[in-house]
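Hi all, long-time lurker, first post. I run a small reading group and we've been trying to get comfortable going from sequence to structure in the token notation. Rather than ask abstract questions, I figured I'd post a concrete chain and ask someone more experienced to write out its structure so we can walk through it together at our next meeting. Sequence below, copied exactly:
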Amino acid sequence: MLRSSLCLIVVLSFWNAAGAQDESEIVTALLKSCQDEEASVRFNALAVLASIAPQSNDVIDACLRGLQDENDTVRSAALRSLVRTNADTEVKVRALVGAINETGFKAAFVQGELARIGEPAVPQLVEAMKVKETRLSALSTLYHFGNKARAAIPAVLEALEDEDPKVRRQAVYCLGQIAGKSTPETSAPRSP
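-- Answer (accepted) --
Happy to help. Here is the structure in token form:
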């Protein structure tokens, strides 16, 4: 891992020194590195590509392919890089919603990015609420939207009837945020 990281640092240093004339060569080399057999090489290549060529369709495609990688850290780098590219908002939202069941810092990242995107993400989150496995995570994400999630109110109201008490509880919190009436006691979703 250290060796691959050092190689990428050297490539980036070269890129900074060489200027834009060699950018396409560097991007081509990094795109090739996205297919390397070593996960750490794929991770590092994806992590830097969006910084070098965020407008490149090839970079966007590499990020989308990286989302299918068998390695979790590579998928994480692909997602983080994808949101830094010039990909269409719909493409970014679809990728983020696809990662909605992530845990820990990845969950915070996914929720934060979707909330930053705001209203354009609401329809796909409403769709995610229709799937039992993603319902709770979609509600948790919508909670962070506040009144930007007004279009989700019918789906959130429906979630109040869910068989899972965690889903019903999250729906209550979400409705409070959408209405802008959360109190300190209800602003942080938690179990009793």
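A couple of things your group might point at:
The CA atoms of residues 96 and 102 lie 10 Å apart.
The chain is about 70% helix and 0% strand.
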